[in-house]
User: Fold this.
Amino acid sequence: MIFVSMFLLFILTIKIKEVKLMIEVELRTFINKDKYEELLKFYSGKNIEIKKEKQITTYFKGDKDFRLMVTPDYCQLWLKDGEIHDDAREEVVVKLEKSYKESLVTMLHKLGYEEEIKWYRVRNSFTDNNIYITIDYTHGYGYILEMEKQVEKEEDIESAKTKLQKVFENLNIELTEKKEFKEKYEDYKINWNEYTQNIDEEQFVS
Assistant:
């Protein structure tokens, strides 16, 4: 309890950029490199502004899905309910200025949070028809297309899911089975150090 109070005090005394509490409804699928490049070209052709961003995301050990993401411009803390790869999960997001990164990481370690997995991702993100879309390449993991809608009420989850499924159908892209995602995740969880051993963290998000 003391550790939690210290952490909350730290969060309250620094400059927080943004805090969100929503239910995230998302569908995702693995794609190959050709489809990755094809989708980027397709959406760029619609005059949509695509934000390209390098991210390092750390998953911490524990019974909660707690994460820290670092980018060249900011840091972000996540706390997600439910299970990884669920279609809908409630999440709390706190976005912080990157200048707090070192202090934040030090405090997390002092509070006993241990790193479990790190993901090194190049994310291309944008919004199209009120759907948040990401087209990612994650080192050692692969290419992924993900679509997301955020809702405030549980009764809106199925409607949001249907809208996302329709977009995948219009793109003629099949959704990857959850079993494949779980197998790929478990492999990465065991081998991520080997898959990412040549990445220099400081240069990656410089």
About this structure: DSSP finds six helices and eight strands in the chain.
